[in-house]
Amino acid sequence: MRFTDALLALLASIPNALAYPSDSAWLNEHVKRYDGFPDNLADRLGTYQPPGPNDSRGPCPMFNTLANHGLINRNGKNLNSSDIKKAVPRGFGIAEDAIETALHNFEVVCEYVNGFSCSDSANDGTFILTNLTLLGEPHAFEHDHSYSRQDYRQNWFYGGITDNIYFNSTIFQDSLNAVGYKPSNPPKKATANYQQFNEIRLQRESTQNQADFPGWFQQNIPTTLFETGFIFGATFDRDSNGTMVGSIPMVRLDWWNYWFSEESFPTNLGWVPASTEVFNQNFILSVSSAVLHASITSLPKSLPAGATATTFPGPGNLPEGDPSPTFPLFQSAPYVAPTSPGAINTKRAALADPQASFPTLPASVSSVIASEVTAKPSLIAAAVQLAGPAPPKFNLYQQSIDTVTLKNQIAAAQSYEKLVIAKITSLASA
Ligand SMILES: *[C@@H]1O[C@H](CO)[C@@H](O)[C@H](O)[C@H]1NC(C)=O
Ligand SMILES: *[C@@H]1O[C@H](CO)[C@@H](O)[C@H](O)[C@H]1NC(C)=O
Ligand SMILES: *[C@@H]1O[C@H](CO)[C@@H](O)[C@H](O)[C@H]1NC(C)=O
Ligand SMILES: *[C@@H]1O[C@H](CO)[C@@H](O)[C@H](O)[C@H]1NC(C)=O
Ligand SMILES: *[C@@H]1O[C@H](CO)[C@@H](O)[C@H](O)[C@H]1NC(C)=O
To answer: Are 293 and 350 within one domain?
Structure first.
């Protein structure tokens, strides 16, 4: 258990102490009439149930929320793409077209990770996503510098892989700190604009660029911006009919905080889904662009090269192996994060001990190395000097690739990692 007692107490007390109307009465009064889903929000949004010990959850708060409310399979497994397509507008009020690219990319990633086609044989354009955890495969669908998750190899030197799947309150609070938002009881209503989201984004890039294992960090701005567009679409300030307040969308930080940390809809804070007619792919892309171009007043230190560039290809469809990959591209068992949702959220059920699925650490990342670099962090920089620059990082989202090239790039990244560890070992024993 890594929450402080004080924070646990605060979280536990929020639902009872809100200055907002209680769930059921409020939900029954507030209806949405314009997008073909049940008028009654309780019917529309389903009931929250925490994931159980055998349920699959992934790095994406949106999909975890849909599963927690039963709008897609509660176990997070065997997800039919048609069901996902209906669930996003139903739950979040974001139009179907906004997730078409994401769905295509799930399918491709599912194939790269499994090594076989994830489409259905009828080839009707639908497919079954094996499970949500699969989306945590590092640098496949998952990306670094998330607003709410750690990066996979940020603790590699210190003897372990890092949980890049489940919500991390420290990381998320760092994001909120970038715009000065603190949790309170009851939650304080506050908003953030495009510029503030650009500041959060750069802050997260800077932090992870410094924390990650040398050569590991991968900048993934288009994907981050697309997700930011989703956050705006899901949580822009709105009235009780779902109509935007003002003419420029502003994220309600109290809603964002509740949604990400509870993986549930913030209805008890006055939130309703937005209109599906307006909040579509064009909306998301216009937010992405506005955030990218919002000028900021001060830059965090140690930004990766290119972090402030203002032109990027939009997020596009991942290239499909042709024919579908016949081997798992990442060459290892699909990733399972080392902590369970039960450890990080009071609302979630205790999960089974996930130890059995831990990837085995290479013998070279021994406790000896961990204690050496802990005692003398400058060893890392010295080892990188000896190892030379990291090979260019493959990027599924920004390059045109064939599977053989990608496989070679992944292998080059892995050899560089081994080289850095070897240099540390020799420096430490010198
Ligand atoms: C989870 O799976 C394990 C192993 O198959 C099984 O023993 C256990 O009963 C399952 N738990 C639940 C709550 O379904
Ligand atoms: C998700 O699917 C992968 C690939 O089939 C499997 O290895 C993994 O155990 C599954 N995880 C969960 C939590 O269902
Ligand atoms: C997904 O669901 C749709 C609608 O029920 C169905 O037509 C389609 O065959 C399903 N796809 C798969 C791969 O089962
Ligand atoms: C959350 O992230 C912080 C910063 O990387 C880390 O120190 C902490 O152990 C993480 N918490 C959990 C529960 O994994
Ligand atoms: C919501 O819509 C209803 C029906 O059109 C209208 O009577 C009400 O004033 C609207 N509420 C707000 C907050 O605009």
So the answer is: yes
Over residues 20-50, the pLDDT tens digits come to: 334 454 444 444 445 678 878 889 999 999 8
Q: Please indicate, yes or no, whether residues 430 and 317 belong to a single structural domain of this protein.
A: no
**Token digits of residue 345:** 């959220």
Of 123, 256, 267, residue with least CA distance to 196: 256
Q: Look up the domain containing 403 and give its range.
A: 362-430
Determine contact, residues 254/188, Cβ cutoff 8 Å: yes
Ligand nearest to the CA of 238: 5
Task: Count Cβ atoms below 10 Å from residue 394 Cβ, excluding itself.
Answer: 18
Give the whole-angstrom CA distance, residue 368 versus residue 282: 52
* Cα-to-centroid distance, 77 and ligand 2 (Å): 8
The best mutation among 118, 126, 129 to test binding of ligand 3, ranked by most ligand atoms within 8 Å of the C-beta, falls on: 126
The string of pLDDT tens digits covering residues 237-253 is 999 888 899 989 999 99
Let me know: does 230 contact 98? Beta carbons within 8 Å: yes
Same domain as 343, residue 366: no
Are 262 and 68 a contacting pair, CB within 8 Å? no
Q: Is 150 in the pocket of ligand 4 (CB under 6 A)?
A: yes
**Domain of 320: which CATH number?**
1.10.489.10
pTM of the model: 0.86
